[in-house]
Design brief:
mainly alpha; three-stranded antiparallel beta sheet; 6 helices; about 40% helix
């Protein structure tokens, strides 16, 4: 499935379930229907299920970047919805960390970090450093590309 794309959707702030490896097509469809989720896939067989047109978005692109652009184009996805508000690993909304959590940040980052966020699900810590700046630029690039395509222009 599209786990990397799923993590980018989480980075953008979208509630994104990444299925466990080996989940059957029937399980995936049942989850999509039951939780009223869009099922984003590169597996054409999933489009053959009853009412798949309501739940399945079949992507033709191959790379994560191409898939992100195709998805954004097809459903007008907001890539800047609520950046960095969900855990990239388990999808749980992040909460403000305590001052004591800053001590767990690597020393080289601690000098410039004034706030941390904690995942209440898996307890991972997040802070805005160089990695977040690079990820934000990529989200901004996806959003800009989508705007350019919407204007009928060729994006970057």
């Amino acid at each position: 499935m599209l786990a990397r794309l799923g993590r980018w959707l989480r980075a953008a702030g979208h509630d994104t379930l990444i299925p466990r490896p080996g989940a059957s097509d029937a399980e995936l469809m049942a989850t999509a229907r039951g939780e009223r989720r869009l099922l984003i896939t590169r597996d054409r067989k999933l489009t053959e299920f009853r009412d798949a047109d309501q739940w399945v978005i079949w992507l033709r692109a191959n790379t994560t970047e191409e898939c992100a652009r195709e998805l954004g184009r097809r459903i007008r996805l907001d890539w800047l919805r609520a950046p960095f508000t969900r855990c990239l690993v388990c999808n749980t909304p992040l909460t403000q960390g305590a001052d004591a959590d800053i001590a767990a940040v690597p020393e080289h980052s601690r000098r410039v970090v004034n706030a941390v966020w904690r995942c209440p699900g898996c307890q991972r810590l997040y802070w805005h450093g160089g990695h977040v700046r690079r990820m934000r630029r990529r989200l901004e690039s996806l959003a800009a590309h989508q705007r350019h395509e919407g204007d009928g222009q060729d994006g970057p």
